[in-house]
Write a structure and sequence with these properties.
The complex is a heterotrimer. By secondary structure, chain A is an alpha/beta fold. Chain A has six helices and six strands, in the order βαβββαββαααα. Chain B folds into two domains: about 5-195, Rossmann fold (3-Layer(aba) Sandwich); about 280-385, Rossmann fold. The chains are: A alpha/beta, B alpha/beta, C alpha/beta.
Chain lengths: ~180, ~375, ~280
């Protein structure tokens, strides 16, 4: 039985949502040998406002390239929470940036103050997306931590390696639960 | 600036997690393309951007021309010096290129034109998906002419078909069109580029006759005339023209020269359909429903097939990898066997007419068409099958 | 008696006669061009002649070089591809006033701006001859044409000024009458790195004369002689006095970096930035 993970990351422009999708996609496909398709919002829908990237990660070739209902949803803005919270499967996991989003507690909805932690612990909210990736890697085994870190370090500006490593590790080691 | 990275796998092959546009550019480079001329246009610009950075690293040249027409002209000019060439564009730019595509057909100039389709007509929906140019790839330029068009459904297939398209253009001395769509252009998947040593690259056949005996369009060696580049340094000096011409490339209006010429440039393609036409079939052996598609809609068809089969709907899929020349034989065979045929297109119904023609009265043929700039889902297909 | 050079350069297999009308200046200009090429001792294997559509654009078919008779207005972008495909080639572009400054006007200014190493012979007869005498962008205001039966209300381009403004390295004008002067300009243009334009004023005794009663070929050739005035003499004349004149001479002779040289430098920079892929 083929299992495809359907993943959606959403937030506002500038939060590094698309970058997170590209890093996860490369890590899972090139380094972990999975089949991955990644798509993203493009054009007018990508400018300002909400932005979105979607991934299909599987052990077999993926047919239809876009998620219908997500297995994993990451929301980093109120607008994206409101838009996508219902487009998930029954047993989906939702990671909510509780420092930016008002959410309804539910089973499988994990609130993590991602942006706040990035700012306060790592010292820069620009790495909130990296903290989120760390959270994702502790929640699931769809991608290895090593692959994620390697792909991440290849994509970031030189001189920011330590900050990014720290952010990823922070996300990975955080304690969180769905409060239900 | 590139937004992806290539790595080497354990066998030394280049791999990367890239967009369709980036895969096209990388594969072109791997296949020996050393000249690109283009003009910025959404959603194909990444192809130009990658090659602007990479071609000069490998001894190739890139130029951003003043317009789309000039870009098409420049790749023909460069191809005449023996260089493998590429241009990439989208709907409006593809319209502008048509006259010179005809020139390439008339003078049998190998080159690759990538058209990343967006919704039209006119400026249309520049960032949104469509497959509305499929008839334009066949009949866009004026006059009778043969053309070969490939359409990929994945990033990996984009890379493969870019190499295939370049080979076909070299082998048959013909322009070839790679018909992409916005979805495959911008989605990312892993590609693995073949080693130089394992890539079967075809280079245009060179002349063997004495310079005094050379003809620009020599028919003595078969339907594909040997090619000599400008600057050949062997004394082959010749003329080419968009006018109907004789074997020496000199203008002619003689019926006994025009007709054999027109027949030959068609024959060189249509006598080699088994080599040129590529299709892929999934579950067509036991299918009650056949979905026919090209480009990324094939992926939706496969999604619909998987979903449908779980519910007991016996769905099969036919992918037209080579869109032109049309796969008449395959469609005719399947139409005799499968009663319900659905042609899935992101347009108002174009290739369906070819399917109907090839099916020659067999099967019930219906269109599933979407033209709102949004990619089609498996459920949208399945609602038509009940 | 001039040495018969041009016959040595005619294509062995091409059947004649050519397409030009009796009295046309195109053949005269081509003769001067061939003499210039001959005197520079450029191997004919290293020359590519590219043209567009029109009377003058038929020239390349007659000469024993590699040649490309392209589409209307597009000689320059085809030639740009040829030059970048093989920068060692000497690429000569033959184009007319309609071809180069109407349908191909955009390519013309951009070739000047890029300063790409093409040598452009722009034969200006102020009219579309091949299509039957319609007005071109260089037809004087008030002249008559098949599509200007009430007199042309358009204002003409000054091709040399246009080329200078757009950045061409070498710009000169002469006429079909001044065969030695124009041969000299051709030589200078071919030797000059970068983009060069030589505007060759010619007469169309078939169609221009038909609509404007300018006489036979010989009359029009004489008019070219009478109307020509050097750029130096013209400097001291009023616009009113210059109205009927053809200002001849060199309008630009610069040394801006040619495009192919700039691109070669770019390639060297790019090659240095090439890195091997890391292993997975």
């Amino acid at each position: 039985m083929k299992k495809v993970y359907e993943i959606r990351f959403s937030g506002s422009g500038g939060q590094g949502i698309i970058t997170a999708g590209m890093v996860l996609g490369e890590a899972a496909s090139v380094f972990d040998g999975k089949y991955v398709v990644q798509t993203q919002s493009y054009g007018p829908e990508a400018r300002g406002g909400a932005c979105k990237t979607e991934l299909m990660i599987a052990d077999e070739r993926v047919s239809y390239p876009k998620p219908e209902l997500a297995d994993i949803l990451l929301v980093m803005s109120q607008a994206s929470y409101d838009k996508y919270i219902d487009e998930v499967k029954e047993d989906a996991w939702v990671i909510v940036d509780s420092s930016t989003v008002k959410y309804k507690p539910a089973r499988g909805v994990f609130p993590v103050p991602i942006t706040k932690l990035a700012e306060e612990v790592v010292g820069n909210k620009v790495v909130a997306n990296v903290v989120a990736m760390g959270v994702l890697s502790s929640l699931t085994n769809i991608v290895s931590y090593e692959a994620l870190e390697r792909s991440l370090l290849n994509r970031i500006p030189r001189g920011t390696e330590e900050m990014n490593k720290k952010a990823l590790k922070l996300g990975k080691t955080l304690e969180f639960k769905d409060n239900v | 600036m590139l937004f992806y990275k290539l790595y080497k796998d354990k066998d030394g092959r280049k791999v990367g997690f890239v967009q369709g546009n980036e895969a096209c550019a990388e594969a072109a480079l791997a296949a020996g393309v050393r000249f690109f001329a283009g003009y910025p246009i959404t959603p194909s610009s990444e192809i130009a951007q990658v090659l602007a950075e990479k071609l000069p690293m490998y001894g190739g040249r890139f130029i951003q021309m003043e317009d789309e027409i000039a870009a098409m002209a420049a790749i023909i000019g460069a191809s005449m010096t023996g260089v493998k060439t590429l241009t990439a564009t989208s709907g409006p730019g593809f319209s502008l290129k048509q006259e010179n595509i005809g020139y390439a057909c008339m003078n049998e100039v190998p080159c690759l034109i990538v058209n990343v389709q967006r919704a039209g007509p006119s400026t249309g929906l520049p960032t949104q998906v469509s497959q509305g140019d499929v008839m334009q790839t066949r009949w866009g330029t004026h006059g009778d002419h043969p053309i070969v068009v490939y359409s990929p459904c994945s990033v990996e297939e984009t890379a493969e078909l870019t190499i295939t398209a370049i080979n076909t253009s070299e082998k048959y001395r013909t322009p070839v069109i790679l018909l992409m769509d916005e979805t495959v252009a911008h989605m990312r998947e892993k590609i693995t580029l073949p080693h130089e040593s394992e890539m079967k690259l075809f280079n245009r056949t060179r002349a063997t006759v004495e310079p005094s005996d050379f003809r620009s369009f020599d028919t003595r060696f078969g339907d594909v005339p040997p090619f000599e580049p400008y600057g050949n340094e062997k004394g082959y000096r010749f003329h080419i023209t968009g006018l109907n011409h004789d074997e020496n490339g000199f203008p002619t209006s003689r019926q006994d020269e025009v007709v054999p010429y027109m027949d030959r440039i068609h024959r060189k393609i249509y006598n080699n359909l088994d080599d040129i036409i590529k299709v892929k079939e999934w579950n067509t052996d036991d299918a009650d429903f056949l979905l026919i598609a090209f480009g990324t809609t094939v992926r939706t068809c496969l999604g619909a097939m998987e979903k449908g089969r779980k519910k007991g709907l016996k769905i099969g899929v036919l992918q037209l990898i080579t869109v032109w020349p049309f796969a008449d034989k395959v469609v005719a065979r399947l139409a005799k066997k499968i009663e319900n045929i659905f042609v899935v297109e992101l347009n108002m119904g174009q290739i369906i007419n070819e399917v109907s023609r090839a099916a020659a009265g067999h099967g019930k043929i219906k269109g599933i068409n979407k033209y709102d700039g949004v990619f089609i889902t498996p459920d949208e297909i399945l609602t038509h099958l009940k | 008696m001039m040495e018969d050079i041009v016959h040595q350069y005619l294509r062995p297999k091409k059947k004649f006669p050519h397409v030009w009308c009796p009295g046309c200046g195109d053949g005269v200009v081509m003769n001067s061009l061939i003499r210039a090429i001959h005197s520079l001792k450029i191997s004919r294997d290293n020359i590519v002649m590219v043209s567009g559509i029109g009377c003058s654009s038929r020239a390349p078919v007659y000469f024993d070089f590699c040649s490309l008779h392209s589409t209307h207005g597009r000689a320059l972008p085809f030639a740009t591809g040829v030059k970048l495909g093989n920068p060692k080639l000497t690429v000569i572009v033959i184009s007319g006033d309609g071809d180069a400054t109407a349908i191909g006007g955009n390519h013309f200014i951009h070739a000047c701006r890029r300063n790409i190493d093409l040598k452009m012979v722009l034969i200006n007869n102020n009219i579309y001859g091949m299509t039957g005498g319609q007005y071109s962008p260089t037809m004087p205001t008030g002249a008559y044409a098949a599509t200007a039966p009430y007199g042309n209300i358009d204002r003409p381009f000054d091709i040399c000024k246009l080329a200078v403004a757009a950045g061409a390295n070498y710009v000169a004008r002469s006429t079909a009458f001044h065969t030695f002067q124009i041969e000299k300009y051709f030589k200078e243009a071919i030797m000059k790195p970068g983009f060069a334009v030589i505007e060759a004023m010619t007469a169309c005794p078939s169609l221009y004369s038909f609509y404007n009663k300018t006489g036979k070929g010989t009359d029009m050739m004489k008019a070219l002689k009478d109307r020509a005035i050097s750029i130096e003499s013209a400097a001291n004349m009023s616009p009113e006095d210059l109205k009927e004149k053809i200002v001849t001479g060199i309008f630009a002779n610069g040394d801006a970096k040619p495009y192919t040289v700039a691109y070669q430098e770019l390639m060297e920079r790019a090659e240095r930035s090439r890195v091997d892929e890391e292993s997975i």
